[in-house]
Design a protein that fits this description.
Shape: rod-shaped
Order of helices and strands: HHHHEEHEH
Strand content: under 5%
Bound molecules: zinc ion
Number of helices: 6
Length: 295
């Protein structure tokens, strides 16, 4: 139902609606015309499907590449932080050694002092060195903790990176395969579409392209599905449904401007599918926005 909103008004230029009213289209063999139009829609939808299939994968590959780049940056940052913390540990351990040596030296001096003033002065100096040593020790503890924590995080991120790199490789292969697989099929479908287009009145074709380009799901010709327009799901009055089934004239959905054709076209298409190939079956992944509602 969301489709309805996305369809722009179709009352400018040649539309199915204007064709419906104008009677400028030869009404003879209307059923054949409608049939061709529906066949064209089916073929074009298959081409759309191929584009969709391919269309999402490059984006997914791009997303993965971005994510991997982000993870690599994160790893580099962590490695730098670990190195810095390790340097802090090493430097402070050296400092502690030097403080301890100084303390030893002062203690020896204190044992040989001549007066109280000298004694007090050396005691103060020793106290100062001890405090400095204590502070350095705290820094060692803190930085060591940082090293352990960051290393744990680093391991996690590295595992994550490995996983994502695997995903990327698979996606790239998938994309390659789809491109290879669908190239031939796409070419055949395009040729088929062009052949059908050649049979269709240019004005009908223009309207078809117009409606198609305005519809999000690129459906311009739809069947009646359970009493509703197969494009926008608006209810269709019973008499109109009968008219549609008769295929004697162009009938347009008054809500979305799509042309409505007999659902028996669809059944025939599916039944005698000898001419038209199956839609691309590759990559059973995310649903594409391509509509399958009429099927
Ligand atoms: Zn509709």
């Amino acid at each position: 139902m969301a489709t309805k909103k996305n369809i722009k008004p179709v009352d400018t230029g040649e539309t199915f609606t204007s064709l419906q009213i104008s009677k400028s289209i030869d009404q003879d063999s209307m059923e054949t015309k409608l049939r061709s139009l529906y066949k064209l829609q089916k073929t074009d939808s298959k081409i759309d499907g191929i584009y969709m299939l391919r269309g999402e994968l490059p984006l997914e590959v791009q997303d993965l590449e971005d994510e991997i780049m982000g993870l690599k940056t994160k790893i580099a940052t962590l490695q730098k932080e670990i190195k810095e913390a390790e340097e802090t540990v090493a430097k402070n351990k050296l400092d502690i050694q030097s403080f301890k040596a100084t303390i030893k030296k002062y203690e020896a001096q204190r044992n040989n002092v001549k007066n109280n003033r000298e004694f007090d002065s050396l005691s103060k100096e020793i106290e100062f060195q001890e405090l400095a040593s204590l502070r350095a020790d705290k820094r060692v503890t803190a930085a060591s903790k940082v090293v352990v924590e960051k290393k744990e995080t680093l391991e996690l991120v590295q595992a994550q990176l490995k996983g994502r790199e695997g995903d990327l490789e698979n996606k790239r292969k998938e994309l390659d395969n789809i491109a290879k697989e669908t190239e031939k099929e796409e070419a055949e479908l395009v040729k088929q579409s062009e052949e059908i287009q050649a049979e269709i009145d240019p004005r009908i074709l223009a309207a078809y392209e117009k409606v198609r380009s305005n519809a999000r799901n690129k459906m311009a010709v739809v069947t009646v599905v359970r009493g509703a327009c197969g494009g926008c799901f608006s209810k269709i009055p019973p008499q109109r449904q009968i008219d549609i089934e008769e295929s004697k004239k162009i009938i347009v959905c008054e809500y979305c401007g799509r042309i409505l054709v007999s659902s028996k076209f669809d059944e025939e298409e599916n039944g005698a599918a000898a001419v038209v190939e199956e839609a691309p079956k590759a990559a059973p992944k995310k649903k594409t926005t391509r509509t399958k509602k009429t099927e």
